[in-house]
Every structure is written in C-alpha cells, then in structure tokens.
Amino acid sequence: RFGAALLLAVALAGCSREAAAPAAAKPIPVSVQAVTTQPWNSTVQSIATVRARESVALTAAVSDVVEQVNFDSGDEVKAGQLLLRLRGNSQQAALTAAQATFEETDQLYRRQLSLVGQQLVAKSTVDTQRALRDAAQARVQQMRAEITDR
C-alpha cells in the first residue's frame, strides 16, 4: 500500500496545474521621454509635378510672324484683349493688289458699259467684265475680312 500511495502522490504531482516558473528573462532596454504639448503643422513638404486644372491653347486663323506679345504666362486676360500682334505685311500687300485689280476691272466695266449703248461692244463682253469686276470686289472684301479676323 505504501508503494501505491507513493505512486499516487508522484502521479498527482506530475499532473499539477501550476507550470514551472521560467528562468528570469533579461530586461529589455527602453528609453523614456516626457510627453509635452507642441503645435501641429499639417503641411507636408514634398517634390511633385503640378498641372493646372485649366489651360488655354492659342491659335490664329492665319499664319504669320508674331511681332509683339502682350501678356506673360500665368496672366489673367479679358475677352477681346489684344494678346498678339502679327506682322501682316503679306496680307496687307495682297489687299493692295486686290484693290488695284478691282479698280482696273471696274474702270474697264464702266468703259464697256458706255460702249454697249453705241453698239460698239457686245453685251456678252460687258457681262463678262461685270463678273470679273464683281470677283475682284469680292476678293477685296475677303482680304479685309482676313485682316480684321487676325
């Protein structure tokens, strides 16, 4: 019996709910600092690429040499404000030539119109000259419109 009691005591000791205490671990070094109140800056400094939400592409109805620029990048401009001045020499010369052509065709038309009454010129010749004069006048108006639209 004594052996059974001893065996029972050893068995119960082995089934104990308490775990053996682990060996003492080395302490972990930590740093401590006192907490203080400081102002918070909510901005962040960084490198970035910025693109405008709105932009404008300028185009001209004609191609010519830019003589003067009346704004800087980033400036606000108003509707109708003159932004660029183009040279315009070629268009002005074309207008002068068109005006000369019109004056010549108009003069010939008037001359032939006076001669048709005397039956010295055929009516078809006068009609052709009127068409040439009207075409020359239209060319003058077209050139003026192009210069105005610049």
From TrEMBL:
Residues 1-19 form the signal peptide. GO terms for molecular function: efflux transmembrane transporter activity. GO terms for cellular component: efflux pump complex. It comes from the Bacteria. Keywords: Signal. The keyword Signal applies. This is Biotin/lipoyl-binding protein. It comes from Xanthomonas perforans.
